[in-house]
């Protein structure tokens, strides 16, 4: 009953949001800075693309790995004492996720996306990206989504979560999901790296969503690798974003049927 | 100004043309507004930003800053801090979370102020000037150009007779309100101490028993609107979409039912104890015959000019009964957490010794260099004991030998409140006494162990056993 009721009102909310989202965002300091930081790689990429004749094909995409050097910071444990319903779901304390270094010396939860060079427009997929609140943590902690694609926010916990999205280019919102099983669809209409989510009730919860206007992005997992398949031949600038260590950019050329390999390296130094 | 001579109808027509149809629909449907008196009577004037800017510099810049960035000269002293108007986040709206307020929302805040904060009401200001301020404030943020307000429709207010408080209580539990606001609304939920606002500053949930302290208004319609739209920037989420209107109205009336009317008396009076027997404990039924006086507590501004922390204790209540020998005082104060550690909860009752005249010694500034000594009755939850003596500051009194042994005190902590009973002699015996036919100036200081380094104090106020002189005690 609650679910059905919820669905119908959500549909209205989503329609309303799409309807209101058409206004163009103003240039912000943040976007200007990002462009400046990327100026050098773009020039390099342009030089390379001038040297190699561009041939638009299916492309073999990019694969790579995000290495980590230096001493890995100690992963603190999350204290969930403020909500017994959260605490009861974990036999062992949960690790905090702001830096997760994998066993093979790579970095987890890095959002890698093509920042420059994608041609044409790419329709957003009809299927939503899920952001689940389960065990009083967000799953996934870092995710990518296309502008205009639905984000399905789910509460799998039998406790109140508030979903406080804090974009600076897109519209912020702070909605309540008090009941287990609630789902809310939201749409971000403009590219934005990154949109932070927090839950005020459980302040240890955070998630980051990379909103891009194409499908060429990935998030590193347990082995630190990433793959952006089907990226057409061409020259691009990739950016790797990490919540603690910031961003890095690299130029890459996709050509000739084999996936180009890229390595990023973040350091605690 | 020309607008005064223009006809209301012409204004109404241009106003309606300006609005989108859902807005008109909402204004039409939103009968809820009818239950709160309309805050503006005349038509909206045409915007004149020069006029608005001048009014802003006259009346607003001192707190909100010359450019509206919330950084005026007085800003650092305030909690909540003055809003950064250039940021574009507005807390008290009738619009969906993430969208800007309507002009009428801003006008209403200007006219009614934000109760419990430092934002006063500007109802005395010319109505046109207020509208020009609205227009000028909107020009300080780009949000108004980028995103249209998305008004939230409320269904018809069922009114207090049809509202179901039992169902409202269930909604309160189902919606997780207690996580922050506490089981009985006393701002002591498990997450209360963890909350941060949009600017990552500590923020506290509203104490729902204090209707006078609801920023956005304490009536059911205002409560309903806060609930459906959220309070953007504060952590309070919007529940629209998560709840039916019927459930939300029941909740709004339930929340309103938690409010306790305050008793702001200029003089706190005592009642004669029945059969001359004074209560020893906080829960003695004899207290029902005492008159309650509420006094606001405010955090002392620290040396760096900012509030030490988000205030956690904001109200103290005094009830008094007396017999021929003594007065018994029941003191009740808000505190979201019980802390009996060495740096834990504590209370001081301060009395002005005879030699100290006038109101010069504000507890906001005391103790200062050369400050007069005050009679301090100091109680700590850690020791459970009280001491009394003259002190030039609080620390010296703590170590001072007790000059007059206080009666054993009874103190209890329950659900966001401390209560304790202390006795005072009616006749001088080395300490200031509450003498019949005399006023005695007293004040309180409160330490909340859960809010380290923060001290909250009241202004001085008078206590008397019974009405003195020809004038009756002031009412509310």
Can you write the helix and strand succession of chain B as a string?
HHHHHHHHHHHHHEEEEEEEEHEEEEE
Number of helices of chain A: 4
**Unreliable sequence segments of chain B:** 1-37, 472-476
Instruction: Give the total of beta strands of chain B.
Output: 13
- Main sheet makeup of chain B: 13 strands, mixed
State the major sheet of chain A. 5 strands, mixed
**Overall mean pLDDT of chain B:** 84
Number of helices of chain B: 14
What does this protein structure show overall?
The complex is a heterodimer of chains A (269) and B (476). Chain A is α+β, with helices and mostly antiparallel strands. Chain A has 4 helices and 16 strands. Chain A has a 5-stranded mixed beta sheet with strand order 5-11-10-7-8, with no helix packed on it. In chain A, strands 12-2-14-15 form a 4-stranded antiparallel beta sheet, covered by helices on one side. Chain A has a 4-stranded mixed beta sheet with strand order 4-3-6-9. With 476 residues, chain B is of the alpha+beta class. Chain B is built from 14 helices and 13 strands. The chains are: A alpha+beta (269), B alpha+beta (476). The interface between A and B is medium-sized, with 34 and 35 residues.
Essential attributes:
heterodimer; A: alpha+beta; 5-stranded mixed beta sheet; 16 strands; 17% helix; B: alpha+beta; 13-stranded mixed beta sheet; 16% strand; disordered N terminus; disordered C terminus
Question: Any chance you could write out the topology, listing elements then pairs?
Answer:
The complex is a heterodimer of chains A (269) and B (476).
Chain A: H1 2-20, H2 29-37, H3 39-51, E1 62-69, H4 84-87, E2 111-116, E3 129-134, E4 137-139, E5 142-146, E6 150-155, E7 161-165, E8 173-177, E9 183-187, E10 192-198, E11 206-212, E12 217-219, E13 225-228, E14 234-242, E15 246-254, E16 260-267
Parallel strand pairs in A: 1-16, 3-6, 5-11
Antiparallel strand pairs in A: 1-13, 2-12, 2-14, 3-4, 6-9, 7-8, 7-10, 10-11, 14-15
Chain B: H1 8-18, H2 21-29, H3 32-35, H4 49-59, H5 61-64, H6 103-112, H7 127-139, H8 143-146, H9 159-162, H10 165-174, H11 178-181, H12 220-229, H13 245-257, E1 267-272, E2 292-296, E3 298-299, E4 315-322, E5 326-334, E6 346-351, E7 374-380, E8 386-391, H14 394-399, E9 410-414, E10 417-425, E11 440-447, E12 455-457, E13 461-464
Helix pairs in contact in B: 4-7, 6-7, 10-13, 12-13
